[in-house]
Specification:
Its EC number is 2.6.1.16. Catalyzes the first step in hexosamine metabolism, converting fructose-6P into glucosamine-6P using glutamine as a nitrogen source. By secondary structure, this protein is an alpha/beta fold. It contains 13 helices and 10 strands. The structure holds 6-O-phosphono-alpha-D-glucopyranose.
């Protein structure tokens, strides 16, 4: 009913709007006054965590994409090697694990069969398993050595939104906690990240107030044959997530690519008018990354693409090559996925609606895949 949807047309729109709250709830009580991380629910001793020399992150669908984002941050903060793998691949191969391997199993529902089987596979080899999960008492946290709950609240729409951003937050908290207990001296950068994490609910709320042009753009794009998504660094998994949302909801061909791979294949897909969505990292910070992507935008536009650029406020370098610019507040590179994914969610939702699809219950998909 309309009341259940809180006045929104779809559960998905309601859940997109709940993201600032979901992030705040997932952070609550986990960042101390002094910028330290406290994770009470992680039932692994500090000694266990100090001994970790390798991390696998496993998940399916959107949860896998959240894990990919996490890799960039955890390796950067902890210097522990991180591999991210689809649970359905991990479970059927011989990953190299032992008791000093940490496996982070990400799942909104806690009941995804492939992820359950992958975590059992990891436990057989004595790895420590930490669940990042949104559902209290579900199978994945019950079978894990520890759990860090995302507090996104119930997610009804099949396409995951608020679970995704809270999964990133949770994996980041794990990464910061590992850095802390392993005695890696907090650099100014990490201290700044802790402050900026606290500011993310407001940043996401700000993005949500500027979505009207995205809705208009969605109606414009609803007749397209395909949409491509490009990104670098953490913008790459955001591109994968943007494409996944569009496939799930709009039944449109959509692919996410690492922008550096363009010339190794994807650029041949560019034709007159093909929409290409590009997320641009901050020009402050990693400026090399920023400049590279600006030239990628230039390259696809020169071949006829219609460029839809997601860039932070004040980034004027993208303007000459952007057919549409969607602005997000200034943020540091590692936190950018939390804001840049929002317009991609809205875009997919509104394109699906414009095409007359069932936004909350897309064809052939299930919220929780409990069978093989
Ligand atoms: C299904 C859902 C996706 C979800 C994936 C993993 O495919 O439709 O939205 O990302 O399962 O689910 P999980 O509950 O394990 O996060």
């Amino acid at each position: 009913s309309a009341a259940e949807k809180g006045g929104y047309d779809y559960f998905m729109l309601k859940e997109i709007a709940e993201q600032p709250q979901a992030i705040a709830d997932t952070l609550r009580g986990r960042l101390t006054e002094h910028g330290e991380i406290s994770l009470d629910e992680v039932r692994l001793s500090d000694q266990d965590l100090r001994d970790i020399d390798k991390i696998f992150v496993i998940g399916c669908g959107t949860s896998y994409n959240a894990g990919l984002v996490g890799k960039y941050a955890i390796e950067h903060w902890t210097r522990i090697p991180v591999e991210v793998e689809l649970a359905s691949e991990f479970r059927y191969r011989d990953p190299v694990l032992d008791r000093s391997t940490l496996v982070i199993a990400i799942s909104q529902s806690g009941e995804t069969m492939d992820t359950i089987m992958a975590l059992r596979h990891a436990k057989e080899q004595k790895a420590r398993v930490l669940a990042v999960c949104n559902t209290n008492g579900s199978t994945i946290p019950r079978e894990s050595d520890g759990v860090l709950y995302t507090h996104a609240g119930p997610e009804i729409a099949v396409a995951s939104t608020k679970a995704f951003v809270t999964q990133i937050i949770a994996v980041y908290l794990v990464g910061l906690h590992l850095a802390q207990i392993r005695g890696i001296k907090y650099s100014d950068e990490v201290a700044a990240i802790v402050d900026q994490l606290k500011a993310t609910p407001d940043a996401v709320a700000e993005v949500l107030t500027t979505m009207e042009p995205v809705r208009k753009l969605a109606r414009d794009l609803s007749g397209s044959q395909q949409v491509l998504f490009l990104g670098r660094h953490v913008g790459f998994p955001v591109a994968l997530e943007g494409a996944l949302k569009l496939k799930e909801l709009a039944y449109m061909h959509a692919e996410g690519f690492a922008a550096g791979e363009l010339k190794h294949g994807p650029i041949s897909l560019i034709d007159d008018g093909v929409p290409v969505v590009i997320t641009v990292p901050s020009p402050r910070g990693r400026s090399l990354l920023h400049d590279k992507i600006v030239s990628n935008i230039q390259e696809v536009r020169a071949r006829g693409a219609r460029t839809i650029v997601i860039a932070e406020e004040g980034d004027h370098a993208v303007e000459p090559y952007a057919d549409h610019i969607i602005r997000v507040p200034r943020t540091t590179t590692l936190l950018a996925p939390l804001t840049t994914v929002v317009p991609l969610q809205v875009l997919a939702c509104e394109i699906a609606a414009a095409r007359g699809n069932d936004v909350d219950q897309p064809r052939n998909l299930a919220k929780s895949v409990t069978v093989e």
